[in-house]
Amino acid sequence: ILMCVLFVTSCGTKKNTAVSRNWQAFTTRYNVYFNGKEHYIEQLQQMERDYEDDYSRRLLTHPAEARADQKMPQPSGDFKRTIEKMQKAIQLHSISKKPRKRSSSPKEKAFRERGEFNPFLHNAWLMLGKAQYLDGDFLGAATTFLYTAKHFSWLPDVVTEARLWQARCYCALDWTYEAEKALHPVKEKDLTNKQ
User: How many Cβ atoms from other residues are within 10 Å of residue 84's Cβ?
Assistant: First the structure.
């Protein structure tokens, strides 16, 4: 019991060790993030299943874009619970404290320059932005994806996905110039995922 208590107390967000980073990633993934993602999937399936297009108007690429125009039929689905779960994951499991300096190698220097040390938290940021987009908060979602792309610059797949979603948000707002600007840094070689 004493070993368990010592282990748990040594894995808080105030300390930045390999053990604490992995423990926070584990609890983020299988506690708060899991519940939020399950709610997200459930609401997304409901939204896509129940939405009926209005064929007398311009067709949308996704039902969530109807939230930008109140005259269009509004989709079902409430993503507020997912948003709350992702905000909770970020608030409770973010590790921003720099680890102790061990060497002056370029790899360690790049690691210490990061702003976030929880190796799973980028998933919560992406899910937060997606939930905001599907809930109709396109400007908030674009801001979240912009922050994600800048804050997790060492993860090129995350940066690419964030920029693509950011462009989607701008398209939903009919801000095509901003969407083009968000997509400009994305190269074809960056598109490694089939989605």
Answer: 15
Q: Is 192 in contact with 158 (CB distance < 8 Å)?
A: no
State the average pLDDT for the chain.
85
pLDDT in tens, 107-155: 767 776 777 878 899 999 999 999 999 999 999 999 999 999 999 998 9
Residues in CB range of 116: below 8 A, 6 or more apart? 94, 95, 96, 122, 151, 152
- Stated as kind and residue range, the H or E segment containing 106 is helix 106-112
Over the stretch 59-94, which tens digit does the pLDDT of each residue have?
888 889 989 888 888 898 899 999 999 999 999 888
Residue in the structure block whose two tokens are 């967000």: 13
| 36-143-155-23 Cα dihedral, nearest 10 degrees | -40
Pick the closest to residue 178 from 135, 131, 146, 149 (CA basis). 146
- Residue pair 164/186 in contact (Cβ under 8 Å)? The answer is yes
Amino acid, single-letter form, for residue 4: C
Half-sphere exposure for 132 (CA within 13 Å, toward CB): 22
CA distance 84 to 33: 10
Cα–Cα distance for residue pair 21/129, rounded to 1 Å: 23
CA–CA dist 195, 124 (Å, integer): 19
